From TrEMBL:
GO cellular component: membrane
Keywords for the protein's UniProt record, in alphabetical order: Membrane, Transmembrane, Transmembrane helix
PANTHER family: TRANSMEMBRANE 4 L6 FAMILY MEMBER 1-RELATED, TRANSMEMBRANE 4 L6 FAMILY MEMBER 18
Residue intervals passing through the bilayer: 12-31, 46-70, 91-116, 159-178
Major location category of this protein: membrane
InterPro entries associated with the record: L6_membrane
Family membership: Belongs to the L6 tetraspanin family.
Places the protein is found: Membrane
Protein name from the UniProt record: Transmembrane 4 L6 family member 18 isoform X1
Length: 201
């Protein structure tokens, strides 16, 4: 019952998550507020996938807006029967929510891989992914962070922002799953009611 009542609020929750994802992803291009690393392409390769901007950002934002429009009572009637119209809208919502699962899930995977790989930074051996062979072990090896001399605080910047992006895309993933569940329940219950009214069940 609670899931049914929260169908609309689930879609609305995606909007701030998507906007925050865009903002945080943009910050990855400016370590310590410095734009020179982006212009010289001295940033981690995963940053250039634009997951937080495109997939868990703009795409999720568009899906959320469409889902909210579908839930609006003034939405265009696709067929004469009200039950048919609700079923059609639920089906479209399920498809859109599944796309949301795909977009947010992909982003979450890429952000996680980027976190495991570590930052692209300058050390005594030059610019490289100096933590790539630690399989994420560097995350708790604080003494090793000082190996990154440039950008300043590169490891902390990388860990904090990627962790936030993982959390944001993870929340989007959960919300989209709940949206799918809510719409499936609505569709199945609506179909059952139609069969009962028709005397089939």
């Amino acid at each position: 019952m609670a899931l049914e009542a929260c169908r609309s609020c689930l879609s609305c929750l995606l909007i701030p998550l998507a906007l925050w994802s865009i903002v945080v992803n943009v910050l990855l291009y400016f370590p310590n507020g410095n734009a020179s690393y982006a212009t010289s392409f001295q940033l981690p390769n995963y940053v250039w996938y634009f997951e937080g901007i495109c997939f868990s950002g703009v795409m999720i934002l568009l899906l959320a807006v469409i889902l909210i429009a579908l839930e609006c009572s003034a939405f265009h009637q696709c067929c004469q029967s009200e039950s048919c119209n609700k079923t059609y809208r639920s089906f479209i919502s399920i498809v859109l929510a599944l796309l949301g699962v795909a977009f947010s899930g992909y982003s979450c995977i890429i952000f996680t891989l980027g976190l495991i790989q570590g930052p692209f930074c300058n050390s005594s051996n030059g610019w490289d992914y100096i933590f790539k062979n630690t399989v994420g072990g560097y995350l708790t090896d604080y003494s090793a962070w000082s190996q990154c001399t440039e950008p300043a605080n590169a490891v902390e910047w990388n860990i904090i922002l990627l962790s936030i992006l993982i959390a944001l895309s993870g929340l989007q993933l959960i919300i989209c799953f709940l949206k799918v569940a809510a719409e499936l329940k609505r569709t199945l219950c609506g179909t059952y009611s139609v069969f009962v009214q028709a005397g089939i069940l």
